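User: tokens in, sequence out, please.
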């Protein structure tokens, strides 16, 4: 991947101290020098309403435009998310819905790496599976291997938020490397 590439990170948890926010920062730190990494928040994006998404009637809310512009600058994405109710967290799905609309969708045709951490035993497998139809609809290029499904995250991070599990760190590094390879396509 040549320099001046931009990767945007999205965290599915808005919780302060989120394992997935920590995981996303770790993934970003593993990118090669010269690649810009920026975590973009969607905490001010309102609930999707198609009435506010019809250019012929009204403009999208400013927070949505800002979110879409930040995504449009990306060459690829890293999404780190927990699993809520066996699926994608509502806030993240809502933000993706806003970003997916229109022929100018900033998500279309871009590579994406999905990772996740949870305190439970399943390690976000259902959330990651729930994302596959979304990626298909957006004709995104998901990096499927290796799967990064961190179960019992409370045992893999120390009190400073550092990942203490070398095997997991190795999986994240391979996932990031595969995302970089996907950007060459």
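Assistant: Sequence out:
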């Amino acid at each position: 991947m040549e320099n001046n590439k931009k990767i945007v990170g999205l965290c599915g948890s808005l919780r302060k101290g989120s394992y997935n926010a920590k995981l996303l920062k770790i993934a970003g730190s593993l990118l090669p020098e010269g690649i810009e990494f920026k975590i973009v928040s969607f905490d001010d994006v309102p609930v999707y309403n198609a009435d506010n998404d019809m250019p012929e009637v009204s403009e999208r809310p400013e927070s949505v435009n800002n979110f879409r512009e930040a995504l449009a600058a990306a060459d690829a994405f890293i999404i780190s998310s927990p699993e809520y109710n066996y699926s994608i967290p509502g806030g993240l799905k809502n933000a993706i819905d806003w970003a997916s609309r229109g022929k100018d969708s900033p998500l279309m045709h871009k590579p994406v790496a999905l990772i996740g951490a949870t305190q439970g035993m399943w390690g976000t497998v259902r959330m990651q599976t729930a994302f596959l139809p979304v990626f298909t609809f957006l004709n995104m290029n998901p990096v499927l291997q290796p799967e990064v499904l961190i179960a019992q995250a409370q045992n893999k991070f120390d009190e400073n938020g550092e990942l203490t599990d070398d095997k997991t760190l190795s999986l994240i590094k391979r996932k990031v490397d595969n995302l970089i390879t996907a950007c060459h396509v």
